[in-house]
Design brief:
This protein is α/β, with parallel strands linked by helices and 247 residues long. The protein folds into two domains: 151 residues, 3-Layer(aba) Sandwich (Alpha/beta knot), CATH 3.40.1280.10; 80 residues, Orthogonal Bundle (Trp Operon Repressor, Chain A), CATH 1.10.1270.20. Helices cover 43% and strands 15% of the residues. It contains ten helices and nine strands. The strands form three sheets. It has a five-stranded parallel beta sheet with strand order 2-1-6-5-7, with helices on both faces. The chain has a two-stranded antiparallel sheet with strand order 3-4. A two-stranded antiparallel ribbon has the order 8-9. The radius of gyration is 23 Å and the shape is elongated. The N and C termini lie far apart (50 Å). Bound molecules: ligand 9D3. Ligand 9D3 binds next to β5.
């Protein structure tokens, strides 16, 4: 898989390239990341990348010509990669979209800065537009990192254990269950007994029940989107009964 990111701030990506699971995937060649700075595709003395909006108002826009020249260079190296613009106006990025991107041979991201880019560049060149949620950032670099991170961890051979990926599929669309490590007691708080029992069927059932219960408490809309099997329904009812008694 290859990623190409068009950005005025390529340094943003240094930590990602060098650290942890993403760093390793890049070092192993499972993923290739090329960074393209439109400033290197300017033709004027001052290497101008921004200009004022027609109609006036605050802020600047990214100039079209440097972006066009950059895109031409990127497309010559990644002719089959769809072009994704990162913007607050995009469709909200989800795990399902991460799974789709993970099936591709590559994606080209345009990380905007300032107030964004000229609409005609979007019309002519951009295939899709993604947001990472309803809050205001200063540009598309962090969204590009978030999306690449979500996609790279789905690629075969990237996560240490195949189990991590399988595990995810059982609990797809649910919040995670609580986790515990040593010691067994902290300031009077005990690890739930079932986790010390060695009974793996009981442990898996407890974890699924906790995941269902926490999703019901904290993110009920996720449950509505997902639906429940009869077993999950029964486990959730059990959670709700004991939660109701606790209140
Ligand atoms: C006048 C309104 N503008 C500033 C408050 C709109 C605006 C322009 C550019 C708001 C944010 C940005 C920069 N953001 C992104 O490039 C971005 C983004 C985001 O801010 N939130 C969530 N997802 C994304 S993807 C790209």
């Amino acid at each position: 898989m290859r990623f190409d990111v068009i950005t005025l701030f390529p340094e943003f990506f240094n930590t990602f390239v060098n650290t942890g699971v993403t760093g390793k995937a890049l070092r192993n060649g499972l993923v290739n990341l090329s960074l393209w700075n439109p400033r290197n595709y300017t033709k004027d003395l001052h290497r101008t990348v921004d200009d004022r909006p027609y109609g006036g108002g605050p802020g600047m826009l990214m100039l079209v010509a440097p972006l066009q020249a950059t895109l031409q260079a990127v497309k010559s190296q990644a002719p089959n990669s769809p072009i994704a613009y990162l913007s607050p106006q995009g469709q909200v990025f989800t795990q399902k979209i991460a799974q789709n991107l993970a099936q591709r041979s590559g994606t080209i991201f345009i990380a905007g800065r300032y107030e964004g880019v000229d609409e005609r560049l979007l019309e002519r060149y951009v295939d899709e537009e993604w947001s990472i949620g309803d809050y205001v950032l200063t540009g598309g670099e962090i969204p590009a990192l978030a999306i690449m991170d979500a996609v790279i961890r789905l690629l075969p051979g990237v996560l240490g254990h195949v189990a991590s990926a399988i595990e995810d599929s059982y609990t797809d669309g649910l919040l995670d269950c609580p986790h515990y490590t040593r010691p067994e007691e902290i300031e009077g708080m005990q690890v739930p007994k079932v986790l010390l029992s060695g009974n793996h069927a009981a442990i898996n059932e407890w974890r699924l029940q906790q995941a269902l219960g926490r999703t019901w408490l904290r993110r009920p809309n996720l449950l509505k989107q997902r639906g429940l099997s009869p077993k999950e329904q029964r486990l959730l009812e059990g959670f709700i009964s004991s939660w109701t008694l606790d209140k």
